[in-house]
Design goal:
Structural class: alpha+beta
Strand order of the largest sheet: 1-2
Oligomer: single chain
Shape: extended
Distance between the termini: 61 Å
Helix content: 25-40%
Radius of gyration: 17 Å
Number of helices: 2
Number of strands: 2
Largest sheet: 2 strands, antiparallel
């Protein structure tokens, strides 16, 4: 049996997002993984609502500004959220 271990991906940062739990003892995330025949088939990552903004920050800081803006715009559009001027100056 071949034993495989995780290695960093060879693709550029635009193709992968690196997310790390900063304090596992605090239970920042709850991860549920389904493994079938030795392969991960499904991952459910739940995060505490109060940590969501920091989690999204972590995701978008790994990509360029244009890519981050495109991702946030797509998510906002899918959820009917207007990212226009919030009235704050």
């Amino acid at each position: 049996m071949v034993e495989e271990s995780f290695t960093d991906p060879e693709e550029t940062h635009e193709e992968w997002i690196d997310v790390r739990m900063t304090d596992p003892d605090e239970g920042e995330w709850d991860i549920d993984v389904v493994v079938v025949e030795g392969q991960v088939e499904y991952v459910d990552l739940r995060i505490k609502p109060e940590l969501l903004a920091a989690f999204v920050d972590c995701l978008v800081e790994d990509v360029g500004d244009d890519r981050a803006e495109a991702v946030l715009s797509t998510v906002a559009e899918r959820n009917g959220i207007d990212l226009g001027d919030s009235g704050e100056e």
